[in-house]
Amino acid sequence: METVIDNELFSPEHLYDDAFKSVNATEMAKRKFRDIATIAGLIFTGYPGHQKKTRHLQASSQLFF
């Protein structure tokens, strides 16, 4: 444990950059999940000729995520 602390792993020096990268990675994971869930049939995209709006697909996929 001391080795981790001595390497300044939990240093507040790069906290903003790390937090920003983490949020961006989470958003990208959500988008990838939405695409995969749509292809897998987990998300109902609507009947032929009456597709659901992208906003509804995003909400449905976020519930699964």
Verbal overview:
The chain is mainly α and about 60 residues long. Helix content is about 65%, strand content about 5%. The protein contains three helices and two strands. It has helices spanning about 1-5, 15-40, 55-65, and strands at about 45, 50. The protein has a two-stranded antiparallel sheet with strand order 1-2. α2 packs across α3 (about 55-65). The radius of gyration is 19 Å and the shape is elongated. The protein starts with a helix and ends with a helix. The mean pLDDT is about 80.
Any chance you could write out the topology, listing elements then pairs?
Layout: H1 2-6, H2 15-40, E1 46-47, E2 50-51, H3 54-64
Antiparallel strand pairs: 1-2
Weakly predicted, low-confidence segments:
none
Report on the biggest sheet.
Answer: 2 strands, antiparallel
How much helical structure, as a percent, in the residues? 55-70%
Q: Say how many strands there are.
A: 2
Mean pLDDT score, rounded?
Answer: 80
Nearest-angstrom radius of gyration?
Answer: 19 Å
Please report the distance between the alpha carbons of the first and last residues.
33 Å
Sheet with most strands: strand arrangement: 1-2
Brief overview, please?
It is built from three helices and two strands, in the order ααββα. With 65 residues, it is mostly helical. Strands 1-2 form a two-stranded antiparallel ribbon.
Main traits of this protein?
elongated; mainly alpha; 2 strands; 65 residues; two-stranded antiparallel sheet; 3 helices
